[in-house]
Amino acid sequence: MIVPIEVENAEDYVALTKKLESESDFLLYEAGERPVDGEKMKSMIRAFHHQPNSTILVAIHNGELVGHVMGMGGSAKRNKHVAHVVTGVLKEYHGRGIATELFTHLENWAREQEIHRLELTVMVHNFAALRLYEKVGFQIEGKKKEVLKVDGQWVDEYIMAKLLY
Ligand SMILES: CC(C)(COP(=O)(O)OP(=O)(O)OC[C@H]1O[C@@H](n2cnc3c(N)ncnc32)[C@H](O)[C@@H]1OP(=O)(O)O)[C@@H](O)C(=O)NCCC(=O)NCCS
Fold this sequence. Notes:
Elements: E1 2-4, H1 10-23, H2 38-49, E2 55-61, E3 64-73, E4 82-89, H3 98-112, E5 117-123, H4 127-135, E6 139-150, E7 153-163
Parallel strand pairs: 4-5
Antiparallel strand pairs: 1-2, 2-3, 3-4, 5-7, 6-7
Helix pairs in contact: 1-2
The structure holds coenzyme A.
The site of coenzyme A has 21 residues, from β4, α3 and α4.
InterPro entries: Acyl_CoA_acyltransferase, GNAT_dom
Pfam family, one: Acetyltransf_1
Domain N-acetyltransferase: 1-165
C-alpha cells in the first residue's frame, strides 16, 4: 500500500530513514550522521503538508514502513514546478516492485500538482537505482564530477530528470 505520510507516522519514518542509511552507501547521509528525531520529523511532515508541490509517500507492508519516495518542490515562482526526488526501500523488500510503485504514485501526484519536472541525482555506480530511474522514464542530463566523498573516495553523480508534459 502506498500512501502520503501522516504526522503520526513520524517515529516510524525516522526508524525507516535510519535503517535505510545504515543499509546503503548510496544515500547522501552516512549512518548516524543526521540528528533526526520524532519531533523534528513531525515538524517536517507538517511543513510538507503545507506545500502543495512537496510530498512524502510511504510504502506500508503489514503495518511497517518499508520504503518511501520524497518530492521536494521549488520555493520560488520560477522553480515551483520542479520537484527534487529522493527514494529508498528496505533491503529485505528489494526487487518486489515497491520502488516502481512508489514512482507511479509520485508521478500521479506530480501531475495533479502541475509539476512539470521531476529531478534527482544518483551515484554513477548505483546500478539498481539507475535501472529503476531509466525504467520509469528518467533521462541522464549530465554528470557532477567528484561531488561526493564516500569512504575517502571521490564519487561522481548523474543528474537525471523526467519532464511530465
Ligand atoms: C534503488 C531501489 C530504491 C530500488 O527499489 P526496489 O523496490 O528494489 O525496485 P523495484 O523492485 O521496483 O525494481 C525496479 C527496477 O529497478 C531495477 N533494479 C532493482 N534492483 C536491481 C538490482 N539489484 N540490480 C539491477 N537492477 C535492479 C530493475 O530494472 C527493476 O525493474 P525490473 O524488475 O522490471 O527489471 C533500492 O535498491 C534501494 O532502496 N536502494 C538503496 C537506496 C538507494 O540507492 N536509493 C536511491 C538513491 S539515488
